[in-house]
């Protein structure tokens, strides 16, 4: 009697997880370098022969990151960097290189270039990037070369993972990848920041569709519960 309820319960759970993903995307619509996520639904079929029908269960445990580039916003900040095209910046998080498209960097007290959270920006050799505290002019070329008062001092690492789909998301805008290689011709733009690639209008439309689907599922479960209760009452008579 519950064959109709259990698959619907699985679907409802998946819709709740999808709502959480959508809410996270909307909350990060203005986060620099953020990559939107989507949920992957899969089907698991149980049974099915000439004596009993098969039952289909929906699962929604996988997540898929959308990697299309966000818009580039002019800020004029000396250490605001964006990548036009493919590639990621490398930053050191507790001794482990992480990839990110969020290029809002600042200079620490010792001249180290770092994220707002204090994670050092790495050069192509894997060492932290430093700029002299007394430098009057700092420029960053399209290839990532950092110059202070006209003298090259470092080259920012711009890398590409061997398999972008295999990257694992970390906190905020960070990703971890086991294998990556330098981008031969990076497109670093100084004074720009890449915006989130979340489309708020599309996410709100998805939220409405998911909410409607959830309400339909809840209505079906309510009716199925009433049907089962009616059958039990008839059996007791």
How do you describe this structure in short?
This protein has 237 residues and is an alpha+beta fold. The protein has helices spanning 5-27, 200-236, and strands spanning 37-46, 55-65, 72-74, 81-83, 88-93, 96-100, 105-107, 113-115, 138-140, 145-148, 151-155, 158-161, 168-169, 174-176, 180-182, 188-190, 192-194. A six-stranded antiparallel β-sheet has the order 13-14-6-5-12-15, with no helix packed on it. A three-stranded antiparallel β-sheet has the order 9-10-11, with no helix packed on it. Strands 1-2 form a two-stranded antiparallel ribbon.
Describe the SSE topology.
Layout (H helix, E strand, L loop, with lengths): L4 H23 L9 E10 L8 E11 L6 E3 L6 E3 L4 E6 L2 E5 L4 E3 L5 E3 L22 E3 L4 E4 L2 E5 L2 E4 L6 E2 L4 E3 L3 E3 L5 E3 L1 E3 L5 H37 L1
Antiparallel strand pairs: 1-2, 3-17, 4-16, 5-6, 5-12, 6-14, 7-8, 9-10, 10-11, 12-15, 13-14
Helix pairs in contact: 1-2
Strand order of the largest sheet: 13-14-6-5-12-15
- Regions with little confidence, pLDDT below 50 for 5+ residues: none
State the helicity in percent bands. 25-40%
* Proportion in β-strands: 25-35%
User: So what's the oligomer here?
Assistant: single chain
Treating each run of at least 4 consecutive H or I residues as one helix, how many helices?
A: 2
Please describe the biggest sheet, giving its number of strands, its sense, and whether it closes into a barrel: 6 strands, antiparallel
Mean pLDDT: 87
Distance between the termini: 19 Å
């Amino acid at each position: 009697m519950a064959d109709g309820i259990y698959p619907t319960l699985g679907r409802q759970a998946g819709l709740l997880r999808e709502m959480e993903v959508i809410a996270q995307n909307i909350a990060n619509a203005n986060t620099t370098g953020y990559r939107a996520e989507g949920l992957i639904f899969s089907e698991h079929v149980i049974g099915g022969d000439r004596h009993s029908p098969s039952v289909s269960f929906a699962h929604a445990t996988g997540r898929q990151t959308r990697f299309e580039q966000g818009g580039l916003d002019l800020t004029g900040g000396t250490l605001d960097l964006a990548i036009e095209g493919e590639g990621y910046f490398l930053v050191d998080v507790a001794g482990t290189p992480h990839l990110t498209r969020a290029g809002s960097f600042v200079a620490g007290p010792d001249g180290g270039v770092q994220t707002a959270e204090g994670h050092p920006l790495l050069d192509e050799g894997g060492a932290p990037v430093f700029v002299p505290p007394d430098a009057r002019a700092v420029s960053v070329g399209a290839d990532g070369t950092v110059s202070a008062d006209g003298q090259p001092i470092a080259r920012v690492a711009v890398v590409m993972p061997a398999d972008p789909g295999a990257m694992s998301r970390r906190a905020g805008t960070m990703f971890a990848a086991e294998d990556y290689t330098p981008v031969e011709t990076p497109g670093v733009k100084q004074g720009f920041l890449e915006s989130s690639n979340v489309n708020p209008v599309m996410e709100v439309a998805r939220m409405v569709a998911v909410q409607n689907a959830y309400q339909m599922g809840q209505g079906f479960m309510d009716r199925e519960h009433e049907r089962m209760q009616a059958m039990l009452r008839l059996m007791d008579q």
